[in-house]
Amino acid sequence: MDVTVRNYGPADEAAMIEIWNQVVEDGIAFPQEELLDAESGRAFFAAQSACGVAEDGEGRILGLYILHPNNVGRCGHICNASYAVSRESRGLHVGEKLVLDCLRRAKELGFGILQFNAVVATNVHARHLYERLGFVQLGTIPRGFRMKDGHYEDICPYYHEL
Predict the structure, then answer these.
(1) Which pairs with CB-CB distance under 8 Å and at least 24 residues apart come from 18-23?
(2) Nearest-angstrom CA–CA distance, 54 and 62
(3) pTM for the complete prediction?
(4) Is 34 helix (H, G, I), strand (E, B) or coil?
(5) Is 110 helix (H, G, I), strand (E, B) or coil?
(6) Contacts of 161 (CB under 8 A, 6+ apart)
């Protein structure tokens, strides 16, 4: 499948909100519990340092990423990102294209490290991808993520020098 990643625009927001909300509704990867609507989604994506969208050859949005500082001041060189792939597009290597573009974009923006604070330990596909792309796991935080069904899973912070 021909997939390209580009910066998002206002015309992409409805698809981005739908895909983001799918991941939130799944309740197994994102810490957010509130769904985005048109207004909150527009504000959320506009507040990021960068957002990228993956689209197929027919212009359908398959996934997205958000990129923003992880902290401020003396730790402002560290950024954080989240990735969301539509349910229909999972397993098609869309996530890899999003992560690679995000790494490039983070470096362009002057960040020195991309850090993931809370990769759920059971998210093995994401963890394998991150490790294959050179991310280093920093440890494990026991019971750091409450799953949708209420039980807790470990989280694994990761980082990648840019």
Answers:
(1) 18/86, 19/61, 19/63, 19/64, 19/84, 19/85, 19/86, 20/64, 20/84, 22/84, 22/86, 22/87, 23/84
(2) 5
(3) 0.96
(4) coil
(5) coil
(6) 112, 113
Domains parsed from the chain with CATH numbers: 3-114 (3.40.630.30)
Sign of the alpha-carbon dihedral angle for 10, 64, 142, 70:
negative
Other beta carbons within 10 angstroms of residue 88's beta carbon come to: 11
Q: What is the pLDDT of residues 28-82, one digit of tens each?
A: 999 999 999 999 999 999 999 999 999 999 999 999 999 999 999 999 999 999 9
pLDDT digits (tens, 9 = 90+) for 12-29: 999 999 999 999 999 999
Q: Of all residues in the chain, what percent carry a pLDDT higher than 90?
A: 99
**CA 120 to CA 97: how far, in whole Å?**
20
